[in-house]
């Protein structure tokens, strides 16, 4: 046993050290905030290093999570298998009619292209990445995928899933990258209404449904209208499906995306060979200084 | 008596366990679920971890633990660096200054106190994000996140109680 006085002195020192640690770390936190504003390159490098290091761990963890999700889906689907079957039969018939029409149109399109000597759009190369983290939340919305610089991913490349546009690469590490989702508050995508050809910008709001802004003519927009990328400014190739108008009310046009963010497993990262895409003009996004 | 190497290793592992568990929970929270997970609404998992250990065993997770956990959260979640660290450390600070209040209190009281602490934490975080990146988070997602955080606490606390029991069983 130690003498009582020594114990209390030791205790007091411990308390003082504890307080000092608190003050130092709070100052460090403020320092990090300033650093985040001042030196975006350094912060991006720190972020790459951490996500690269954690990517394998996240990948291992995402597999059981995916299997649990698959089992849950199976159970849910089993319950509704009859109705689903009937619905699919009906849809199949409808799609077969569409397929016939599409074939006719394809042939016609081909002929017209030949007649008018149209320059074809470049066909993109792509790499596929598995999603290992879905950091959808209140303050930011992004995904981490297992494809990085070593696989040919580059900052600014467009990310799509089978259903439509997912987002864009904003950070590319050695073996992992971050996809800024369309719903993130920093996301700005030039889009066009498929029917009326009216141009607009799709703004993320950190909510499930992004909004349309800078639309020239607001009349004539109704729920159900399809929206695709417009290719203005060269950041996105034209014609990638984005979503449909979900609701129109005074000044706010909300868009239901084709992709279901929480359900994505694999995404394709497209390489259109369009270099020098500028970073998002939105606040909080670091300028493209690493390349 | 000098502790043996095995004892030192054992002690270190015990001390690191709360932090390791919190890290694991943070990673689990962002693991992609193929079903529409409620995790997408963003319960503040790290806040719960930090709060639990500050209330029950402040010596097991110090300010450095809160700082590092917050830093990792900010990097993984793509929020401005330093914000989560600050929020988590302030949470620890508030709980530790009110230590007398928390000692030996039943679960319901700590849950109720969490409701206050988490409200302060989420508002502070929203304010810090607004100041640093210039956008204001809509109140509805904040409320959802807050509600989920509170709902998640009993489950998490139960798991941590078991861990805590194991940790103290032999030492």
UniProtKB/TrEMBL annotation, chain A:
**Does the keyword field hold Membrane?**
no
Q: Which PANTHER family match?
A: CELL SHAPE-DETERMINING PROTEIN MREC (PTHR34138)
What is this protein's function per UniProt?
Answer: Involved in formation and maintenance of cell shape.
Q: Name one GO cellular component term.
A: plasma membrane
Domain Rod shape-determining protein MreC beta-barrel core residues, every copy? 131-270
List GO BP terms, alphabetically: regulation of cell shape
Q: Which UniProt keywords apply?
A: Cell shape, Coiled coil
Family matches, as InterPro entries:
Cell/Rod_1, Cell/Rod_MreC_2, MreC, MreC_beta-barrel_core
Give the organism the record lists: Roseospira marina
State the taxonomy lineage. Bacteria, Pseudomonadati, Pseudomonadota, Alphaproteobacteria, Rhodospirillales
Q: Which gene does this sequence derive from?
A: mreC
UniProt record similarity statement: Belongs to the MreC family.
Coiled coil residues, start to end: 71-115
Q: What is the protein's given name?
A: Cell shape-determining protein MreC
From TrEMBL, chain B:
Q: How does it sit in the membrane?
A: Multi-pass membrane protein
Biological process according to GO: regulation of cell shape
Q: Name one Pfam family in it.
A: MreD
Q: Any stretches that span the bilayer, and where are they?
A: 12-31, 38-55, 75-96, 108-137, 143-160
For this protein, the record's InterPro entries field holds: Cell_shape_determining_MreD (IPR007227)
Which keywords annotate this record?
Cell membrane, Cell shape, Membrane, Transmembrane, Transmembrane helix
Task: Tell me the domain of life.
Answer: Bacteria
One GO cellular component term noted in the UniProt record for this chain:
plasma membrane
Major location (coarse)? membrane
Localization, UniProt = Cell membrane
- Family per similarity comment: Belongs to the MreD family.
Q: Which NCBIfam families match?
A: shape_MreD (TIGR03426)
| Descriptive protein name | Rod shape-determining protein MreD
């Amino acid at each position: 046993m130690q003498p009582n006085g020594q114990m209390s002195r030791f205790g007091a020192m411990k308390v003082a050290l504890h307080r000092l640690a608190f003050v130092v770390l709070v100052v460090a936190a403020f320092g990090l905030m300033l650093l985040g504003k001042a030196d975006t390159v350094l912060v991006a490098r720190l972020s790459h290093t951490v996500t690269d290091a954690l990517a394998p761990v996240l990948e291992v963890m995402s597999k059981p999570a995916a299997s649990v999700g698959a089992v849950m889906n199976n159970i849910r689907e089993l319950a509704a298998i009859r109705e689903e079957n009937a619905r699919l039969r009906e849809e199949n018939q409808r799609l077969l009619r569409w397929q016939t029409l599409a074939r006719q149109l394809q042939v016609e399109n081909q002929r017209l292209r030949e007649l008018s000597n149209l320059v074809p759009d470049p066909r993109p190369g792509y790499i596929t990445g598995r999603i290992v983290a879905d950091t959808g939340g209140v303050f930011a919305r992004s995904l981490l995928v297992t494809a990085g610089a070593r696989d040919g991913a580059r900052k600014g490349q467009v990310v799509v899933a089978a259903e439509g546009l997912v987002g864009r690469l904003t950070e590319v590490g050695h073996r992992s990258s971050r996809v800024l989702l369309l719903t993130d508050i920093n996301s700005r995508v030039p889009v066009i209404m498929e029917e009326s050809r009216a141009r607009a910008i799709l703004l993320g709001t950190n909510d499930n449904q992004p909004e349309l802004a800078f639309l020239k003519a607001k009349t004539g927009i109704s729920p159900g209208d399809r929206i695709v990328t417009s290719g203005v400014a060269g950041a996105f190739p034209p014609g990638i499906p984005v979503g449909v108008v979900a609701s129109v009310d005074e000044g706010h046009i909300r868009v239901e995306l084709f992709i279901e963010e929480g359900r994505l497993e694999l995404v394709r990262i497209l390489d259109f060979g369009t270099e020098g895409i500028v970073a998002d003009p939105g606040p909080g996004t670091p300028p493209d200084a690493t390349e | 008596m000098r502790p043996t190497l095995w004892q030192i290793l054992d002690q270190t592992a015990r001390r690191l366990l709360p932090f390791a568990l919190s890290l694991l929970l943070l990673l689990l929270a962002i693991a992609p679920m193929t079903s529409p997970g409620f995790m997408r609404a963003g319960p503040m998992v790290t806040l719960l971890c930090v709060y639990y250990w500050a209330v029950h065993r402040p010596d097991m997770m110090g300010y450095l633990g809160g700082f590092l956990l917050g830093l990792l959260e900010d990097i993984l979640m793509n929020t401005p660096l330093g914000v989560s660290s600050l929020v988590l450390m302030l949470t620890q600070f508030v709980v530790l200054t009110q230590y007398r209040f928390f000692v030996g209190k039943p679960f319901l009281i700590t849950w109720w106190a969490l409701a206050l602490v988490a409200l302060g934490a989420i508002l502070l975080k929203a304010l810090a994000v607004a100041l640093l990146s210039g956008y204001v988070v809509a109140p509805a997602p904040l409320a959802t996140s807050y509600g989920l955080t509170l709902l998640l606490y009993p489950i998490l606390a139960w798991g941590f109680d078991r861990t805590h029991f194991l940790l103290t069983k032999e030492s």
